[in-house]
Amino acid sequence: MNYKYVATCLFGLEGLLGEEIDRLGYHRIETIDGRIIFEGGAEAAARCNINLRFAERIYLLIGMFSAYSFAELFEKTRDLPLEEYFDKTDEYPVSGHSVRSTLFSVTDCQRIIKKAVSVRLGKAYGVNILPENGVRKRLEFFILKDRVMLMIELSGTPLHKRGYRPETVAAPLRETLAAAIVKLSRPRENVLLRDPFCGSGTIAIEGAMMMNNIAPGLNRCFAAEKFSLFPSETWTSAREEARESIIRDSVFEAYGSDIDKNCVRIAEESARRAGVEKSVRFEAVNAFDITTENRRGTIVTNPPYGERLLTEAEVTELYRQMGEHFKTLDKWQFYILTPNEMFPKLFGRRADKIRKLYNGMIPCFLYQFFKNADGHKEKFRHNK
Question: Hey, how many other C-beta atoms are within 10 angstroms of the C-beta on 120?
Answer without folding.
Answer: 18
